[in-house]
């Protein structure tokens, strides 16, 4: 991978861990952290294990990676002069794999394969009980980093798409990642966990695309409308690339025409002016085509949303028929709900309109409590003793009232 075979990771590691102990290969702190784990799993030092797990993810995030070959993580990222490497990293990677922090790309389904192959592969993975250890040539897929990148893609696509799904070409999807290999590893994860779908539109040109979910729900199956939308999106990208190229050539022709005119070469200036006019005409035609394609793409998105709304209405009507509910009953319930909502809003408005200074003072409130106490005492009927009463219920009415009065008098009312 580009990020794993060039310069950069050593500076990233130094920035993450600090240069105090990293630049001292003979230091006790560095050698203690580079030692292998010994004994049983329960005897491993937990701070050391968490240190390496967190550092691996932080370095990968700084390098903008979602995946990396295992041999680079264990032998290159943290290598020190003299060939000194952390001997505990293979065990750390196995722990991260057991915790679900990393997955092997070889264990993920190939999104470009058929549905039958993916089903057979999943069934075979369920049968396998024991897992082989991580090999140096394995590609590690960092789960949390893929999900973070996926959330970032959703945020970017949501700015220009108002539907629950978005269709992009494979080149557009790859542009969100550092390189094509990293994008493919992330695509394997997203497809396997239902957050994206890979498909190919077969027309005059074979176009690869990805249907991406812009919500937390699983992405829906690919439809014929999605194939048409992918081909239009691909055409839109091609037209935009052509328009950008025409813009550059138009600007170059204008500059050359001006330079030739200033140098006195009127024939060359005339030729460049003519070329710039031809480029301008091509730009105009390309812009018109691009606008038409964008309009069709928008119409397809609207049609898809209309189809979903129609489907929801159809399901609602079917449910009403099954429950023997008429439209009139639904309208009555909706009207009652509207009236309740309106009444609640009036109550809320009335409560908000009460000024704070209208609240009585604490002395007035206590006076009201005493009057309430007298009223309650007059209304309580005389107690008829029918026999001995247990000690737990010996409290007299007057004592209960006094206790209630004392408790209420201690209540402190505050402005809401």
UniProtKB/TrEMBL annotation:
<dbReference type="Pfam" id="PF03357">
    <property type="entry name" value="Snf7"/>
</dbReference>
<dbReference type="GO" id="GO:0006900">
    <property type="term" value="P:vesicle budding from membrane"/>
</dbReference>
<dbReference type="GO" id="GO:0032511">
    <property type="term" value="P:late endosome to vacuole transport via multivesicular body sorting pathway"/>
</dbReference>
<dbReference type="GO" id="GO:0009898">
    <property type="term" value="C:cytoplasmic side of plasma membrane"/>
</dbReference>
<dbReference type="Pfam" id="PF25880">
    <property type="entry name" value="WHD_CHMP7_1st"/>
</dbReference>
<dbReference type="GO" id="GO:0000815">
    <property type="term" value="C:ESCRT III complex"/>
</dbReference>
<dbReference type="InterPro" id="IPR005024">
    <property type="entry name" value="Snf7_fam"/>
</dbReference>
<protein>
    <recommendedName>
        <fullName>Charged multivesicular body protein 7</fullName>
    </recommendedName>
</protein>
<feature type="region of interest" description="Disordered">
    <location>
        <begin position="384"/>
        <end position="404"/>
    </location>
</feature>
<dbReference type="GO" id="GO:0005771">
    <property type="term" value="C:multivesicular body"/>
</dbReference>
């Amino acid at each position: 991978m580009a990020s794993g075979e060039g310069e950069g990771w050593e500076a990233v590691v130094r920035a993450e861990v600090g240069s105090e102990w990293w630049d001292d290969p003979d230091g006790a702190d560095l050698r203690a952290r580079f030692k292998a784990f010994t004994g049983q799993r329960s005897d491993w030092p937990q701070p050391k294990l968490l240190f390496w797990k967190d550092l691996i993810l932080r370095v990968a995030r700084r390098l903008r990676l979602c995946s990396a070959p295992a041999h680079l993580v264990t032998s290159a990222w943290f290598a020190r002069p003299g060939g000194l490497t952390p001997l505990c990293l293979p065990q750390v990677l196995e722990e991260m794999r057991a915790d679900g922090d990393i997955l092997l790309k070889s264990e993920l389904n190939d999104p470009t394969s058929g549905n039958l192959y993916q089903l057979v592969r999943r069934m075979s993975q369920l049968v396998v009980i024991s897992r082989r250890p991580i090999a140096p040539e394995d590609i590690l897929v960092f789960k949390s980093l893929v999900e973070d990148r996926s959330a970032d893609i959703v945020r970017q696509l949501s700015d220009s798409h108002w539907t629950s799904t978005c269709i992009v070409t494979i080149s557009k999807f790859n542009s969100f990642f550092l390189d094509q290999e990293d994008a493919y590893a992330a695509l394997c994860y997203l497809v396997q966990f239902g957050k994206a779908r890979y498909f190919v539109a077969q027309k005059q040109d074979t176009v690869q695309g990805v249907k991406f979910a812009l919500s937390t729900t699983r992405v829906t199956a690919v439809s014929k409308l999605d194939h048409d939308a992918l081909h239009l999106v691909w055409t839109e990208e091609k037209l935009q690339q052509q328009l950008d190229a025409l813009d550059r050539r138009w600007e170059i022709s204008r500059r050359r025409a001006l330079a030739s005119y200033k140098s006195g070469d009127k024939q060359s200036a005339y030729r460049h002016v003519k070329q710039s006019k031809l480029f301008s005409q091509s730009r105009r035609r390309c812009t018109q085509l691009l606008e038409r394609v964008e309009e069709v793409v928008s119409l397809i998105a609207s049609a898809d949303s209309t189809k979903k709304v129609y489907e929801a209405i159809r399901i609602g009507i079917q449910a009403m028929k099954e429950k023997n509910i008429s439209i009139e009953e639904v309208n009555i319930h909706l009207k009652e709900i509207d009236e309740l909502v309106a009444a609640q809003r009036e109550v809320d408005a009335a409560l908000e309109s009460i000024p704070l200074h209208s609240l009585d003072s604490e002395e007035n409130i206590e006076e009201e409590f005493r009057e309430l106490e007298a009223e309650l005492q007059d209304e309580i009927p005389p107690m008829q003793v029918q026999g001995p009463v247990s000690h737990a219920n010996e409290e007299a009415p007057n004592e209960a009232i006094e206790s209630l009065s004392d408790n209420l008098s201690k209540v402190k009312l505050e402005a809401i």
